[in-house]
Amino acid sequence: MSLDSTDRRILEVLQRQGRISNADLSERVNLSASACHRRVQRLEAEGYIKDYVALLDARKLSVPTTVFVEITLQGQADELLDAFERAVARIPDVLECHLMAGSADYILKVVAENTDDFARIHRQHLTRLPGVAQMQSSFALRTVFKTTALPV
């Protein structure tokens, strides 16, 4: 299915206001409530809308420190990559893990209370990941820009 301009407007609004009522959404995208509801259901069924979530405030949850960790593995065998990916997915402090092309094999986005807490995460979890040859951590000083909205 290809997206038309109305589908794109629906996706733009829902990315920024996931709790908007169908009545308000239909008004914003200039559709009847029933037509808007059908389109949203179709966008969900076809996988354009994966889920609805609440975005939480990391500071209020006492994890304001963001650390990006570059990891190089000892090799590239499928078994090693699979073992690493299964293990890293079990670490609750890791928000994202990306397989990379470039100098590192993976980049992780980790949240922590502070540097001491990151030291604990590093010692208890990251150093125990299978196949790690090298690790480099970079602390974010300030988040300049952050969004979850994809360009549609």
TrEMBL record:
Source organism per UniProt: Phaeobacter gallaeciensis
HTH asnC-type domain location: 3-64
Keywords per UniProt: DNA-binding, Transcription, Transcription regulation
GO process annotations (BP): regulation of DNA-templated transcription; response to amino acid
GO molecular function, one term: sequence-specific DNA binding
A family per Pfam: HTH_24
Domain of life, per lineage: Bacteria
Alphabetized SMART domains for the sequence: HTH_ASNC (SM00344)
GO cellular component: cytosol
Entry protein name: AsnC family transcriptional regulator
Entry annotated with the keyword DNA-binding: yes
CDD domains cross-referenced by the UniProt entry: HTH_ARSR (cd00090)
InterPro entries: ArsR-like_HTH, AsnC-type_HTH_dom, Dimeric_a/b-barrel, Tscrpt_reg_AsnC-like, Tscrpt_reg_AsnC/Lrp_C, Tscrpt_reg_HTH_AsnC-type_CS, WH-like_DNA-bd_sf, WH_DNA-bd_sf
